[in-house]
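Study this chain:
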Amino acid sequence: MSKYAVIMALLLLFSLTGRAKVKTTVWENPSTEYGSHYGNGNFLLDLDVSKVELKTDETMVHITARLRQAETDYAFQLTGDTYLKVGEKRFYRVLIDPKETKEKGLYELAIHFPPLPKGTKAFDFFASNNQETYQIKGIKPAEERWKQLFWMIAPSTNVSSGTIDSAA
């Protein structure tokens, strides 16, 4: 094989691996429709989805869990029955990556799931700790929720300035 052929093969290989980059869509502070995120019926726990990363090779959901009463014996944990649901299909968790926090009763988690279908606009989160089941339904980008809330505003409306300049 000539030097020219080897160099061309290497260039081809590098160009192909450069195209295989993972595409990521990030939803910062997504909105939710409904959540039953409390413990023992006493509202001891607040779960908040702070970020969603939709990648071609995985989906990451970042959750902040805060105990509402720091001096409680309630222990927050998730078991294997944690999944995302799109339509009727379930995507079970692969890994939970806890992050250190210095505040008592505050837990930050990055939960890894298989990739959701391309074009997913919303999904539901279900988790269990063998005693309670937590649900957060209708997780979607905040912009999608705004569209639902303000569907009757004309496209020429200037919502960002705080005024509604429609011809109605």
Remarks:
- The two ends are 74 Å apart (CA to CA).
- The helical segments are 3-19, 142-149.
